[in-house]
Structure formats: structure tokens, C-alpha cells
TrEMBL record:
All residue ranges annotated as the GST N-terminal domain in the record: 3-83
Protein name (database record): glutathione transferase
Organism taxonomic ancestry: Eukaryota, Metazoa, Chordata, Craniata, Vertebrata
Origin: domain of life: Eukaryota
Family statement drawn from the similarity comment of this UniProt entry: Belongs to the GST superfamily. Alpha family.
């Protein structure tokens, strides 16, 4: 096995996408194994690879890591994206947790019934524009720096950039009232590692489609 981290999940965004984003932002190449059948998933559980019988699974530095939050904390710490001290780390954690709440709505969106989709898009827009994006607009405006914490690129910036693009897919004009976030998005898009990840052919996954939803339901069916 090569020294590259090895990611096991479905061929789609889901809970693995923020991990892909973080590794890509850190300039780390990785390999992926895609689950396509329930048998593959059951075998991982039977072989003891999944501590809590859940994916994502990331094999890195001789460890088989599960639980998205733990995986991302490790990657952020390893690649110096987790602040310089406990206070900065606490801020990063707070921002990441907040963004995760918003991303959870986006994560569940493809699985909502067709007649609820419009209402759910409205909910995402309302939550993004009234609860989450104003926080980051204010933070960036108050300290007048390019990044959210310590004037240094961190996990929080990566997570926010992913969230902005994910919300924009559903609500294209969502940043219209957030000039600081517009500037932030442009700067992030031009960072070499993120720019590379946003190019066609990168490991970034497209928005979930009907096939992805079908595969998720098939692999994880009880």
C-alpha cells in the first residue's frame, strides 16, 4: 500500500466530501475505494474495520479512522490547519460545528421527497442568510483579515468555502448581501490547492443525483 491516505465511502459527496476538501486544501493526494453493494459494506463491518459500523473510513498513518469529526481533527492537526493554540482551536471548532449544522441540511436534501424539495431549499436559504453566513460576515469584517482565525488559513476556512459553494448550488444569489464573504470566496478560489480541487477531473464530487441516492439506500439498507 502506498503512503497516501485511503478513503472508503460511496462515489459521492455525503460525509466524506468535507474530508476530501480538507485533504485537498492541505495539498495531500489520496486514494479512494467506493462502496457499491451492501455486501462490501457488511464485509467491512465483519472484518472489524468500522469501529461503530459506519463510514467514512480513512486509513492514514497506520490507523483505520472512523467518525468524520475525529478524522478531520486529525488531518487538520497533522497539516497545521488547526490554529496555533487552544484558544484558536476552540474558535475553529465553534465555526466548524456551526457550518456542520448548515451542511447537515444540505446532506439530507437529496433524500427529501420531491414535494418537499422547494420548502427545503427555502429552509436552507433562510438558515444560511439569517443564522450562519451573518456570523462569518461579521467575523471577517471585525478583524479585517483574510482568514477566519489567527489570520492564517485553517480548517474553518476550508469548511466555510465548501458550505458557500454547496449553498450556492441551491441558491445562486445567496451571497448577495454578504460583501465580505464574496471577497473571501474569491480569495479561497484562488488558493493553489483549492483552485486545483475546483478544476474538472479533481476528486471533488458533483452534486448528488438520483443514482447516488439509490446507491446510498442500497448499500445501507437494514
Amino acid at each position: 500500500m502506498s503512503g497516501k491516505p485511503r478513503l472508503t465511502y460511496l462515489n459521492g459527496r455525503g460525509r466524506m466530501e468535507p474530508i476530501r476538501w480538507l485533504l485537498a486544501a492541505a495539498g495531500v493526494e489520496f486514494e479512494e475505494v467506493y462502496l457499491e453493494t451492501k455486501e462490501q459494506y457488511d464485509k467491512l463491518i465483519k472484518d472489524g474495520f468500522l469501529l461503530f459500523q459506519q463510514v467514512p473510513l480513512v486509513e492514514i498513518d497506520g490507523m483505520k479512522m472512523v467518525q468524520t469529526r475525529a478524522i478531520m481533527s486529525y488531518i487538520a492537526g497533522k497539516y497545521n490547519l488547526y490554529g496555533k493554540d487552544l484558544k484558536e482551536r476552540a474558535l475553529i471548532d465553534m465555526y466548524v460545528e456551526g457550518i456542520s449544522d448548515l451542511m447537515q441540511m444540505i446532506l439530507m436534501f437529496p433524500f427529501s421527497p420531491p414535494d418537499a424539495k422547494e420548502k427545503n431549499i427555502e429552509s436552507i436559504k433562510e438558515r444560511a442568510t439569517n443564522r450562519y453566513f451573518p456570523v462569518f460576515e461579521k467575523v471577517l469584517k471585525q478583524h479585517g483579515q483574510d482568514f477566519l482565525v489567527g489570520n492564517k488559513f485553517s480548517w474553518a476556512d476550508v469548511q466555510l468555502m465548501e458550505a458557500i459553494l454547496a449553498v450556492e448550488e441551491k441558491v445562486p444569489d445567496v451571497l448577495s448581501g454578504f460583501p465580505q464573504l464574496q471577497v473571501f470566496k474569491t480569495k479561497m478560489s484562488n488558493m493553489p490547492t483549492i483552485k486545483k480541487f475546483l478544476q474538472p477531473g479533481s476528486p471533488r464530487k458533483p452534486p448528488p443525483d438520483a443514482h447516488y441516492v439509490e446507491t446510498v439506500l442500497k448499500v445501507f439498507k437494514k
